[in-house]
């Protein structure tokens, strides 16, 4: 409910603002330790990224609920936004977007960690689990760029608005595609952010969609074998439908004005 989300937001905002907050039946405050505020900013930003990695990856509809809180906190506490981006880029280099290269002297295990894989006792996580986590973080990032905390200062610019989404998409299309990863993340990004981008950029966005269909999808196909065609087929179908209808569907879970009255 909107009222519940506002409670959560107010509690986080009050805590970051130095006010005492009740948690686990005791009052705590960031002023209790010289590094208290910086520690809380760091842990909160880390937690926000984990929400994308765990919650949004399993329940896509939750992306906007979490994103609107992050966006509002980012606006009032810019340092949290900076640390959030640092955590996000480290956990998911594709959010930059950036594909780390294998450098001489780097072990394969270390390189897999750089690519975002979880490696425990030299065992690398399954590819489908990896892709699920990465897409959860990209979906959260795509949602953050387009939502504002409704009770914030409307005169202020969005702390990390749609221009960053436009830049991400352009940079992504300038990279050589990676097997699986590129098709999955491009599809999920367009599903979440496409509607907002077309409202903002109009004809320029449709030119990008046409480029994806005519030039970029064939490049993904060139590095994809028949076993890995699932997500690429979904991306092709999604882009084709959008171009035929000349409209981008509203993303699932988008917050309506009526939500805030609940």
From TrEMBL:
Its main location: cytoplasm. One of its GO terms (cellular component) is nuclear pore cytoplasmic filaments. It is found in: Cytoplasm; Nucleus, Nuclear pore complex. Keywords: Coiled coil, Cytoplasm, mRNA transport, Nuclear pore complex, Nucleus, Protein transport, Translocation, Transport. One of its GO terms (molecular function) is phospholipid binding. InterPro entries: GLE1, GLE1-like_sf. It holds the Pfam family GLE1. One of its GO terms (biological process) is poly(A)+ mRNA export from nucleus. The keyword Transmembrane does not apply. Required for the export of mRNAs containing poly(A) tails from the nucleus into the cytoplasm. May be involved in the terminal step of the mRNA transport through the nuclear pore complex (NPC). Belongs to the GLE1 family. This is mRNA export factor GLE1. It comes from Serilophus lunatus (silver-breasted broadbill). The gene is Gle1.
